[in-house]
Design brief:
Blueprint lengths: L1 H113 L1
Keywords: Coiled coil
């Protein structure tokens, strides 16, 4: 009987040691889980920050596209007006050349008449 009690006592010690190891393993796993949860929270915060930044960049891009469209419209208007002015300048230059030619002809006529 003493031997059985001694064996049972040994078995109880083995089981206690095993239970203690399992408790330590569980504690280690719980700490690892806590660290993973903290890392996950950091990553979620970073993801949210990046999502917010993306939304801000998309808004800025849309604003720039609107500005670009307006600028291109103004530029097209300016180019059209410049083309009109260029055409008018060419017409005026042709008219000036014509008038200079007429003036030279009249000067020549006047010179002939004076002689």
């Amino acid at each position: 009987m003493e031997r059985v009690a001694h064996e049972q006592h040994g078995r109880i010690e083995e089981l206690s040691d095993e239970l203690s190891r399992k408790d330590q393993e569980i504690e280690g796993l719980m700490q690892a889980l806590d660290e993973e949860e903290k890392e996950l929270e950091v990553l979620e915060n970073k993801s949210n920050d990046l999502e917010q930044m993306l939304q801000e960049k998309e808004f800025a891009l849309r604003s720039l596209e609107v500005f670009r469209t307006k600028a291109l419209t103004k530029l097209a208007t300016i180019v059209d007006k410049f083309d009109d002015l260029h055409s008018l300048s060419e017409s005026l230059l042709a008219e000036v050349e014509n008038l200079q030619s007429q003036l030279q002809e009249r000067d020549s006529e006047i010179s002939l008449l004076r002689q």
